[in-house]
Amino acid sequence: MGSPNEASSTRSYLQIFRAIRGMLGFSKTYAVILWSIFGGALIGFILARLQHIDINRRFCPRVPASDGSTGFPSACYWVVHFSRYRAGMILHLSTSLPAGLLAVFQFVPGIRHSAIMYHRIAGYTAVTLAVIGNVGALMITDTAMGGDMATRTFIGLVALVTTATFGMAIYNVRRQQLDGHRAWMLRTWAYLGFIVSLRILQAIMTAILTRWPSTSGPVSIPCAELRYIYLADENREGGYFAPSAFDAFDDMYPTCKQTETGPSTDAVLVAVEGWLGSDRGQTVAVSMSTFAAAGILALILHAVVVEIYLNLTSAETERLRMVSHQRQLDKGYKNPGSAGIVAQRFGDAHPWVPPEARQPKPASV
User: Fold this and answer.
1) What is the pLDDT of residues 274-324, one digit of tens each?
2) Whether the Cβ atoms of residue 49 and residue 205 lie closer than 8 Å to each other
3) d(CA 218, CA 288)
4) Cβ distance 74 to 148 under 8 Å?
5) What are phi and psi of 197, to 5 degrees?
6) Can you tell me the distance from the alpha carbon of 267 to that of 223, in angstroms, rounded to the nearest whole number?
7) What's the CA gap between 137 and 93, in Å, rounded?
8) Contact predicate 109/99, CB 8 Å
9) Nearest residue to 284 (alpha-carbon basis) of 66, 12, 44
10) How many CA atoms lie within 13 A of 364 on its CB side?
11) DSSP character at residue 64
12) 209 phi and psi angles, rounded to 5 deg
């Protein structure tokens, strides 16, 4: 058995936890734990990358790193040399990161209940910023992480799906369908939060491909981009590349020897094997090859988890459905309780009726 001091310490921790839970407005312990884990992970990810909004000094410094602490060298090639990709990256980072910070606190019950006007303003602001961030992502999708068809499709899918689900969430709240608004907002931000899991899965995948390189083929990288990846380092002297650096690069990739040495959108490609190590090109290549796969797995994982959560919190869904029923009834909507986007309007689900109108089935004789 534990000592009295240990029991007293445990009670003190529980009292502090309950006080924090009450201050945040959570009524269930599991809810505050889940919010702390997933919200905390997203906040940590965003805070670590807010510095990247400074494109010149933080995202694409003179020597971009390959470990994720800056923008990837492959991304910086396009950002540094082409205004379209620079504008797209600035637009994406400067809107998506603040949107995520705002979103985390939208799920704190204490804020929703005691600061309704703030909740509305912050909600519309977060949605607007996130949609603009999707536009920025689409502007750079043809070069992001190699810009292959899988990556383009994945980024386009995320932008399309989250923009559509934002629309459904807003439509529901405008129709006072609060249960639907909660469900679609949870889904949307769970989808967008895939970026955190993507980084974890990508790290695992790159380690696997480094251990067993035969499980993945080479990545095609344009010569101009590859030249930037290798030469944006200490070989640059006074803003120009040292001749010896060019010679070493040409020895590694003779295919690129006859191509332009400056920024170019040429289609001369070279195959680069990818694995982690001291070689900058190979490190970038393995990140390119795993991005789309890790992203798809992360998105599926988040989609499954949020549906499980919604099914496990059906009591909260029913409570909000009853609140929606009363508000819609007061406003004179048709089908109060089901005036928004609900399953029975499009499928064969049984019509929802308020609890007081539900009649128990007569017992069979």
Assistant:
1) 877 777 788 888 888 899 999 999 999 999 999 999 999 999 999 999 999
2) no
3) 10
4) no
5) -65, -30
6) 8
7) 9
8) no
9) 66
10) 0
11) -
12) -65, -30
Tokens of 355: 């609890």
Both tokens of 69, joined, read 């602490």
pLDDT at residue 343 is higher than 60: yes
- Which H or E run includes 220? strand 219-222
- Tokens, residue 285: 């290549």
Q: How many residues does the chain have?
A: 365
Q: Calculate Rg over the CA atoms of the chain.
A: 26
pLDDT of residue 262: 59
Residue 337: count of CB within 10 angstroms of its CB: 24
Write out the two tokens for 351.
Answer: 């019509």
Residue with tokens 């931000």, as numbered in its chain: 189
Which two three-digit tokens encode residue 140? 């750079």
How far is residue 55 CA from its own chain's centroid? 20
Query: Quick one: tokens of 362?
Result: 């007569």
Identify whether the C-beta of residue 169 lies closer than 8 Å to the C-beta of residue 188: yes
If DSSP codes are grouped into helix, strand and coil, which group holds residue 359? coil
Nearest to 276 by CA among 211, 201, 231, 229: 211
Q: How many CA atoms lie within 13 A of 27 on its CB side?
A: 5
CA distances (Å), 153 to each of 142, 160, 216, in order?
10, 10, 20
H runs (alpha helix) in the chain: 4-24, 29-34, 40-49, 73-81, 83-106, 109-114, 116-140, 149-174, 178-192, 194-211, 223-231, 243-252, 280-312, 314-330
Query: Whole-angstrom Cα distance, residue 226 to residue 222?
Result: 6
DSSP line for 34-60 = HIIIIIHHHHHHHHHHGGGGSIIIIIS
Contacts of 333 (CB under 8 A, 6+ apart): 175, 176, 339
Token pair of 281 as six digits: 């090109």
What pLDDT, in 10s, does the model give residues 222-271? 888 888 887 765 444 444 445 556 667 777 888 887 666 556 655 688 88
Q: Tokens 């959560």 belong to which residue?
A: 309
* Closest listed residue to residue 182, CA positions, set 192, 174, 173, 190: 173
Q: Is the pLDDT of residue 60 over 60?
A: yes
